[in-house]
Amino acid sequence: MPRSTHKPDQSQDRLFASEQASADFRFDAAVARVFPDMIRRSVPGYTTIIPMIEVITDQYAQPGSHCYDLGCSLGASTLAMRHGIADRHCTLVGVDNSPDMIERAEHYIALDDHPLPVSLRCEDILQTDLQTASVTTLNFTLQFVPPRHRNALLERIASATLPGGVLILSEKIRFESDSEQETQTRLHHEFKRANGYSDLEISQKRSALERVLLPETLAEHQQRLEKCGFSEVMVWYQCFNFVSMLAIKSS
């Protein structure tokens, strides 16, 4: 974790432990309350990705620029970026459209012992103002944006990014090969079982997510990022069907 006094909420995720009517997944108060436990037990590599966002931010944050965490949820990536920025006098902005997430993010950021101010915006990332950015993070966020809006969002991010700036994009992906898709999905489910989730919880959460979390292939992500204006796109982390990419704008 980033070097901070942030103490994550230890409430255990039991949201899908009992039979319930089918409904789409929502980032509401119930999810916000258990989110640290949920994402740690559901996303392989998450506890590696967060501190590496600090490392990447340290390498690419430019003095006097803006740094954005789009879809900041409880602010884990925001805190990592905060510590990576150090004393470069950047403006750090976290954006999320869930009031429940923003409320808890404010609490965690207030607990963090770091002097850099953080501006939190409760608004749609498709509408938020972006300018002179050196580091932008979309940490498992784009997958929840309707596919028809993804290109425009990434074009706006690329346009706002300074030469030499970067986008950190973490996503759940799908595979072009049916065989690889089946294998990677099975391994992901085994990861969840190893973390204490029952078959009922895995099945019900998958059903709740299937209409709102719409993954794409790695090739689709890479081609779109290059088309939108990033000169180099690389995978810096992958575990099963979860990937984090670094998109760099030429200097």
UniProtKB/TrEMBL annotation:
It catalyses: prephenate + S-adenosyl-L-methionine = carboxy-S-adenosyl-L-methionine + 3-phenylpyruvate + H2O. It is an enzyme of class 2 (transferase). This is Carboxy-S-adenosyl-L-methionine synthase. It holds the Pfam family Methyltransf_25. The gene is cmoA. It comes from Marinobacter confluentis. The lineage of its organism: Bacteria, Pseudomonadati, Pseudomonadota, Gammaproteobacteria, Pseudomonadales. Catalyzes the conversion of S-adenosyl-L-methionine (SAM) to carboxy-S-adenosyl-L-methionine (Cx-SAM). InterPro entries: CmoA, Methyltransf_25, SAM-dependent_MTases_sf. It comes from the Bacteria. GO terms for molecular function: carboxyl- or carbamoyltransferase activity; S-adenosyl-L-methionine binding. Its EC number is 2.1.3.-. One of its GO terms (biological process) is tRNA wobble uridine modification.
